[in-house]
Automatic annotation (TrEMBL):
<dbReference type="InterPro" id="IPR008969">
    <property type="entry name" value="CarboxyPept-like_regulatory"/>
</dbReference>
<protein>
    <recommendedName>
        <fullName>Carboxypeptidase-like regulatory domain-containing protein</fullName>
    </recommendedName>
</protein>
Amino acid sequence: MKGVTIEEQKQVPVAHLLEKISDKQNFSFAYNNKIIPADSLVSLPAYSGPLLDLLEKILGENYEFKEVPGYVVLRFAPRKLFIIAEAYKNGAKTIIKGNVSDVADAKAIMQASVYERNQLLSTFTDDQGYFELKLKNHIGPILITVSKEDYRDTSTYILPDIIVNEKSAIKNYKYYPDNIPGNDVEHNRFARIFISSKQLLQGLNLGNFFAYSPYQISLTPGLSTHGLYNSQVIDHLSLNLLGGYTAGIDGLELAGLFNINRKDMRSTQMAGVFNFVGGSARGVQFAGVYNRVLNHISGLQLAGLANKTSYFDSGLQMASLANISQRANGVHIAGLINTTVSSKGLTMAGLTNIARDSSKIQIAGLINKSGYVSALQAGGLLNIAKKVRGFQVGLINFADTSDFSLGIINIIKNGEKSIGISIDESFFTHADFRSGGRVLYGLIGLGYQSSPEKKQYLLNVGIGAHIINDNRFTLKTEYITTLNQNYHASSIRLLPGYKLNKHWGLFAGPYIIMASADKNAGFITNGWILKRSFTNAQINTTYVGITGGILFRWF
């Protein structure tokens, strides 16, 4: 093991000391915080020598230390195993039989994982500690390894008859550091429905060491070409007739019903019902119903019903029902709902988007909700946000701060709200509610005209912008649509105003209007007529008018 040099340490937390050691070397320590006393204080004299001896001084003799590429693994293993094994030939098969016991008391060890790394075969010891492995076409020495929780991994070589000049393939292995405790396949209730207790025990015994294999074929998670060792093997091609449970995929995985990976998926994964990845995913993931990735994903993720991830880093995520993630970048499209803690990409939903902390672009058919919006929030009915740096576009908008809320009703906490009473050149009296932010606002109100022929009622809706809004003088422009069952008009207004005090003000100004009314509607139209035309049923008029009134504002 590596050599290290470290100065004297006085009352330093174990975790801090391990970090100091790894900073000086080209590796990281991998350990479980629940087992390693990371917060305990230790004192050490200056030291220069093997890392193994230093770790024993820090942690004691009840721990096992393994050096793998990029890591030194610290594992609590106070007990030791004793193996007796023999091998004999039976045709093309090599049969290995043996027994595993405790070194201290010679008691038989049951449910220990016994495996041969090159052919990726494994089994468990029985109640008396006995095991049997059958290897096909094996040549050369056999290395058998036994793993069991709280015991040190123990290996033994068996030397059957040796054939000179024959070679056996050596498998490539990889170590994965622990994820956040509890955030893995083995602790997920949904995934555990499809994983047997023996497969869970195999993962517990063998830990985070995984082998690579060109391919595997499974009928179900327990019936595969790698047997119980399947959960420790990363495959380049995985074919699961019904469903499969593997360590990971670095290539292509197909399943009639489901795929479950303990760690990462790379490239392409497709399943008729669902995919479940315990690590990260990169590439294309397709499921007829449901995709679940416990950590990061980037690429293309498609589900017939729903996608759920912790972090969607980049790419496109689509589901007919819902996309659910902690953090979302890229593009997310759902038929019903997108929900996330924060989003820096585009989220589109037929019904609603929900981002608890922040979002960049939200587009929904009905409702958007977010903490901070940095670009656009567009909802068919309602937008809700705390702080908006970009635009809100919807029928109704709510925000703590927003300068550009484009809707009929905009309830902005630090914005302006007002009720105005006005009269125009045609003697329509209007009562309008204006609400919005520093720049844009919305308008909704009613109009009334009493004529000798009949009384007329109108609905006013529109949007406006503050051009000037200083301590005394204001200048606004508005686009208003006015309508009832017999009348429809669109107008553009320019309204100068004067503030009498904090709440009260006056306004008056011209507007240009294009109106269309039924011939028998009885509307009285005054103003400077620019154009008038007639059809069989309607009168179309373009004219310039004027309006003015008083308003009461509050904040």
